[in-house]
Amino acid sequence: MSEKGSDLKPMESRMVFLAVALIAFTWVCVFIILPGVTGKPGVAQQMQQDLRPALQQETTNDPSEK
Fold first, then answer.
1. Alpha-carbon distance 66 to 57, whole Å?
2. What's the CA gap between 4 and 49, in Å, rounded?
3. What is the number of other CB atoms lying within 10 angstroms of the CB of residue 42?
4. What is the pLDDT of residues 33-57, one digit of tens each?
């Protein structure tokens, strides 16, 4: 009386979990581990460096400090 489709649901959910875990692991490797190992700035570090001069300008031009 059980349907064939209901037997596949646990396997499908495992596959979805594995796919999400693989994507998360790849993201962590590319953006965090790889730049740390190679010593070269990654995408996230380049964005931080690009934003740093703009943030420093805002703090030096702050009229509330006068």
1. 15
2. 55
3. 16
4. 877 787 777 777 777 778 877 666 6
**Which residue from 39, 15, 17, 19 is spatially nearest to 27, judged by alpha carbons?**
19
Question: Which residues touch 43 (CB under 8 Å, ≥6 apart)?
Answer: 31
**Cα–Cα distance, 35 to 58 (Å, whole number):** 29
User: What does the alpha-carbon distance between residue 16 and residue 12 come to, in Å, rounded to a whole number?
Assistant: 6
- Global pTM value: 0.49
Helices (H), the chain: 4-28, 34-38, 43-60
